[in-house]
Write a structure and sequence with these properties.
The complex is a heterotetramer of chains A (95), B (203), C (544) and D (332). Chain A is 72% helix and 0% strand. By secondary structure, chain A is mainly alpha-helical. Chain A folds into two domains: 1-62; 64-95. In chain A, helix 1 (8-28) runs antiparallel to helix 2 (36-56). Chain B has helices at residues 2-36, 38-46, 50-76, 79-109, 125-161, 171-195. Chain B is elongated and about 60 Å long. The chains are: A mainly alpha (95), B mainly alpha (203), C mainly alpha (544), D alpha+beta (332). Chains in contact: A-B, A-C, A-D, B-C, B-D, C-D.
Chain lengths: 95, 203, 544, 332
């Protein structure tokens, strides 16, 4: 069994980081940053998601490289869906 | 055995990718309409209860911690800890669903369920309704995943108690963990996208 | 089976290992599941074909005289949905893929045999639901479900058909997932990626699309159903929605879905050409990577279905530009197949005839795709019979020819019997001629301006429509013939040797039909794919 | 060329020739590719058929060849793309001064409205040699306006306008088809486009009494009460609409967009969606209260307020709003 076993301390640390980020995003949302608000919220959410994926889901210690390829390609194709759809909506105003 | 473990893990990740794309369709709809009707989105988000959303986020993060610790217990073969942690995870899941239920009930009584009975006093009620539709659809789909997750964790807890899993075999525990964390991650995005658009939260 | 002409003591194989209906319905043997799929997709093929014939008969005359307008609309809708979701998408992966993927890589079964059985059951549940929908009123939205017609105006069973397709989608996802994991994790010792038959590369690419694309159409159909049930406006402009969003989400899957249909057949054709030219395929790596390239690029071009739908001018330019990139890997494949023939030792067996037909028809289908990707021309010919002809050249001329070729090629392995060669060649010829007679006139019709989905049409289009209808009856005969002689051969056909074509590939090194676990012992691969040079070098002295 | 060729559609617009030219080019190119591939296959199949004692020669492949047959087609493809895009660009950018005609599609008929107020069902009369712009919307599902002889097609969507322009070259009667499946009588949603010589067209316009579209819009503008808030003399509770058409508008949420047909349409039917900066979202929605024809009339009126030559208030007072290019004298 080659699975990596992380320490309890690490998990608790990640948990604490997630809690802090939740507080940060909730607090920041009360300040009007204009268009940057959404960007900040998404950056924090992505940071949290990365923490979950890398540590809780153990991708950092995963034995198969293939898993990483799978995740990256999934996110990549989601990106294609979002970006190319927006390519239409975003450029409708141009004449 | 090793091959089986790796197959199961790869299969699970592929399944989660399909889940990403499944939710992705709705995120795409969300993004397009938010881009087109930002005011309606802000107005809709103002109707969200900031505290319900935030508390649920905290609950889910805690459940993820207990889930991660449960998988760890399985890896090191601590059966009792495994069962207890799984049950705590389930309880967190139930708390989440309970809060969500209260929240849904509130929206329902305030006619914030899209359809013929939808009511909204402000301008552009039409697109606020689309916000609410996506809110119900996205959180509803998420809640459905939570429900499935709670049931699966329940079964896993039962089998763990029966001693089915140990340090040499814990694929199902691990894959359930992956699923649980994934569902948690969806919420990590839903929370700011639905609850935190408006800057004027009540409370 | 037991009463047939038994030449020797019959070996135990997957067909006679167990008897009884339960041994089939609860099987986890990928070969038996393949046969279950074979029966079910064939059933749906004939349902869809029946609709097609009614459509062609209606179009024999300009007036709408055979069926009512509503009936006609239901016919082409259900023809499309049955043929796409219940025949073309599952056909090659679920029948040939299921049977061959594990054997070709030297495994005992797929990675998840029980999920494989689940896929079939999902397919059957979906199929029954679709049948129920068709028998109790049907659906008339066009297979594309365009909103707001499907959500607010159609009075037919949109939700039920949608649910059927949703479930069939998950069947397809699980098949794809199973194949990806199997190809990654279950290859026999020595079977490196570069030694894999190109059919497996094609199946792998197909699976990628199934896993990534299908969920999007699933959620889109859920949204359509919710909109219909709760009268909310995600897509309905009356309620503030945007109908183009539906089209974006729908085509995000449904364009790559075309590659789910064609890629496996490309893989089949590659195997056939190598075998009957007795050659290693020309440019192995290019053919392999072109499959992956098609799968990836196929996701970047979906809005070329929407050039007149009201998308922005600039996004139309972007999607048109990207569309040309996906044509390159297809061209690479065609050129490599042709080059493989060079200095080969070619025999004209039935599978090879289908392969020739495939290249011809696919080339024409692909080239007319260039017309459609050219913005200026697309504006004129989209939503006309030009499009209808184009996608039938790809999906029937391409995918179905490949499937039939593959069925003939592997029939000895699947059934343990030889099909009658003369009839096979005749049927291949009939299919090819009937197909061209049916669909070539439709290109002309399209450029003349006959819109698709028309129940009545202007009299000047009649001559070409008559030709098309005549062709469709020829085509129907062409499809019935294999069905008949395959059934015939199961009882009366010559027992097949293990390797009737003297072909490379692990599937030919086990018995025909294979034993339940495919191989007596796990094979160890020490040779490259398509080692026809070595095989023939061994054979030649024996022949002399 | 090909004008009287059977199985070839008539060419009756300026763009049709461009489309045909590219089409013929593509036919030749793909014909040549087909010829190349098919004859190679046939030659190889015959030349290298199986013979006793002649084994196949194993060839691994050739990078040079692979690159050749990837790059050359790609080059050809880019050329086709550029040509097709050029035509599309032309088809999608109407010239500045056009004869505007409103088209309303519904299950299952086409209604066309001329600026002079003439209405037609399932038919459209246009002059030859003039640039015509169709401003189209649908009352129910998606339809598609398709005239094969003009080689043009555009989906007609509910809830917004799509536009299409052409210049007819040859007088005659041509097919008008609905090309997007729209339900039971989709195949009967057909009509005719009649191209007339300018003189005959003028005569046709004068055929019957009709209220010019902008005038009808102006009457609606007062009868619906729009004019109580959208005033022209002093600042009302709504923006002054004089000269706003085609101009940028600053919105309440900070974005700027152009007041085009679709924006004006949305502002009538769903005024809360994009409120102009500095105004309160108090305008009631007119969705369900006005028909598509009435929205078109209002739009035509608001557009007429932006034609500088005739002035604005004056045009209203005289009851003859500027319609720019419409031959109004024929209507009088």
């Amino acid at each position: 069994m080659s699975a990596h076993i992380a320490t309890k301390k690490l998990y608790v640390g990640i948990w604490a980081a997630l809690m802090v980020l939740t507080v940060v995003t909730a607090t920041v949302s009360r300040i009007d940053l204009g268009a940057a608000s959404a960007a900040v919220a998404l950056i924090i959410a992505t940071t949290k998601a990365l923490l979950v994926v890398l540590f809780f889901m153990g991708v950092k210690y995963v034995s198969q490289k293939m898993t990483i390829v799978v995740i990256v390609s999934g996110v990549f194709f989601l990106g294609i869906l979002l970006v190319l759809s927006m390519a239409d909506y975003g450029s409708r105003a141009f004449k | 055995m090793e091959q089986q473990r790796e197959s199961a893990e790869l299969g699970m990740w592929l399944f989660l990718i399909t889940e990403i794309m499944f939710f992705g369709g709705m995120f795409c709809a969300y993004m397009v309409y938010r881009y087109m009707y930002p005011m309606a989105w802000e107005a809709g988000s103002e109707q969200m209860d900031f505290w319900f959303g935030t508390i649920n986020t905290v609950v889910l993060i805690c459940s993820s911690l207990t889930m991660a610790l449960a998988v760890r217990s399985a890896q090191v073969g601590q059966r009792k800890a495994l069962v207890i942690l799984l049950i705590i995870t389930m309880l967190f899941g139930c708390v989440f669903m309970g809060i969500k239920g209260v929240e849904y009930y509130g929206h329902w009584t305030e006619h914030q369920f899209p359809g013929p009975n939808f009511q909204f006093a402000g301008p552009d009620a039409q697109h606020v309704q689309i916000f609410f539709f996506l809110y119900w659809a996205m959180t509803g789909l998420h809640a459905l995943h939570m429900l499935i997750g709670i049931i699966v964790v329940g079964f896993i807890a039962y089998w763990s108690w029966r001693g089915k899993y140990g340090a040499d075999y814990y694929n199902p525990v691990e894959n359930t963990g992956l699923y649980w964390h994934f569902v948690d991650m969806v919420w990590i995005y839903l929370y700011p996208l639905l609850y935190l658009i408006s800057h004027k939260h009540a409370g | 089976m037991a009463t047939a002409v038994v030449p020797t003591v019959e070996r135990e194989n997957y067909l006679n290992a167990q008897y009884g209906i339960k041994s089939w319905l609860l099987t986890t043997d990928h070969k038996r599941i393949a046969l279950l799929y074979l029966l079910s997709v064939t059933f749906f093929f004939f349902i869809g074909g029946f609709f097609a014939l009614l459509i062609r008969l209606e179009l024999l005359t300009p007036a709408g005289d055979l069926v009512q307008a509503d009936t006609y609309n239901k016919l082409f809708t259900m023809h499309g949905q049955v043929m796409i979701f219940f025949f073309l998408i599952p056909v090659v992966p679920a029948v040939l893929g299921n049977f061959l993927v594990p054997i070709m890589i030297g495994a005992k079964d797929l990675a998840f045999p029980r999920i494989n059985l689940l896929s079939w059951y999902l397919y059957i549940v979906a199929g029954l639901l679709m049948m129920h929908c068709m028998l109790t009123g049907g659906i008339d939205t066009g297979w594309t479900f365009y909103t707001p017609f499907s959500t607010a105006y159609s009075n037919t069973k949109v939700v039920e058909a949608g649910l059927a397709i949703f479930i069939a989608g998950f069947s397809s996802i699980f098949t794809g997932l199973n194949f990806i994991v199997t190809i990654h994790r279950m290859r026999a010792p020595g079977m490196t990626w570069n030694r894999m038959p190109l059919f497996l590369w094609a199946m792998y690419a197909t699976s990628i699309i199934q896993v990534l694309g299908t969920p999007v159409v699933a959620i889109t159909i859920v949204l359509v159903a919710l909109e219909r049930l709760f009268h909310v406006g995600v897509f309905d402009p009356k309620l503030g929605g945007d109908p183009l969003l539906f089209q974006h989400l729908f085509w995000f899957y449904s364009h790559p879905a075309v590659y789910i249909m064609i890629l496996p057949s490309m893989g089949v054709v590659t195997e056939i050409i190598a075998c009957f030219s007795r050659k290693r395929i020309f440019g192995y790596q290019f053919v392999a990577f072109s499959s992956i390239a098609i799968a990836v690029l196929g996701f970047l071009v979906w809005a070329h279905h929407m050039f007149v739908a009201g998308i922005s001018l600039y996004s139309a330019l972007v999607f048109s530009f990207l569309s040309y990139f996906v044509a390159v890997p297809s061209a690479i494949k065609v050129f490599n197949w042709t080059a493989t023939l060079y200095k080969g030792s070619i025999s004209y067996t039935t599978p090879m005839l289908y392969a020739f037909g495939f290249i011809g028809l696919f080339t024409m289908g692909g080239l007319t795709g260039l017309f459609l990707a050219a913005l200026g021309i697309d504006v004129h010919v989209t939503d006309t019979y030009f499009v209808v002809a184009h996608f039938h050249y790809i999906m029937v001329g391409g995918a179905l020819m490949g499937y039939l070729g593959g069925m003939h090629f592997w029939w000895p392995k699947i059934s343990g019997r030889m099909y009658p060669e003369w009839w096979g060649r005749l049927a291949a010829l009939v299919v090819f001629l009937g197909f061209n007679l049916t669909f070539f006139p439709q290109f002309v019709l399209g450029y003349m301006g006959m819109p698709r989905r028309y129940w009545q049409y202007s009299p000047e289009f009649q001559i070409l429509n008559v030709m098309s209808t005549a062709g469709s009856t020829v085509l129907a005969v062409g499809y019935l013939l294999p069905m008949i002689y395959f059934l015939w051969s199961m009882r009366y056909g010559k027992p097949a040797p293990d390797n009737p074509w003297n072909a490379a590939g692990l599937e030919w090194q086990t018995a025909s039909p294979p034993p339940t676990f495919n191989f007596e012992e796990t094979p160890v691969v020490t040779w490259e794919a398509y080692n026809y040079g070595e095989i023939d070098a061994k054979e030649v002295p024996v022949e002399r | 060329m090909f004008d009287n060729f059977p199985l070839w559609p008539t060419r009756a617009s300026t763009i049709a020739g461009n489309v045909d030219a590219l089409y013929i080019f593509l036919l030749i190119v793909s014909g040549m590719i087909c010829l190349l591939v098919f004859s190679l296959i046939l030659i190889f199949a015959a030349r290298f058929r199986k013979r006793k004692g002649v084994p196949a020669e194993q060839i691994e492949g050739s990078h040079a060849l692979e690159i050749t047959w990837s790059v050359i087609p790609l080059g050809i493809f880019f050329f086709i793309f550029a040509w097709g895009a050029f035509i599309y660009f032309k088809e999608r950018t109407p010239p500045p001064s056009t004869l505007d005609i409103y088209v309303v599609a519904k299950q299952w008929m086409w209604k066309t409205e001329h600026m002079g107020g003439q209405h037609e069902i399932n038919s459209l009369h246009v002059p030859a040699g003039r640039d015509v712009k169709l401003i189209m919307t649908s009352q129910d599902v998606i339809h598609s306006f398709y005239v094969p002889a003009f080689r043009i097609k555009q989906d007609v969507l509910p809830g917004r306008y799509t536009t299409l322009w052409f210049r007819a070259t040859k007088p005659g009667t041509y097919h008008l088809f609905c090309a997007e499946y729209c339900g039971t009588s989709h195949s009967q949603m057909i009509g005719e486009v009649v191209v007339l010589e300018p003189a005959q067209y003028a005569e046709w316009l004068g055929g019957g009494p009709a209220t010019p579209l902008p005038l009808a819009g102006q009457q609606l503008f007062s009868s619906l009460g729009c004019s109580t808030c959208h005033r022209f003399d002093v600042q009302g509770r709504g923006p002054n609409l004089t000269g706003i058409f085609g101009k940028p508008v600053l919105l309440e949420d900070g974005r700027t967009l152009t007041a085009d047909e679709n924006y004006i349409r949305e502002s009538i039917l769903n005024p809360g969606a994009k409120v102009v900066s500095g105004f309160k979202p108090i305008m009631p929605t007119f969705q369900g209260l006005v028909t598509e024809d009435q929205v078109n009339a209002l739009l035509a009126y608001i557009k007429s307020l932006s034609k500088p030559a005739q002035g604005t208030v004056g045009a209203r007072a005289s009851g003859e709003p500027a319609t720019g290019t419409t031959p109004m004298n024929q209507v009088q």
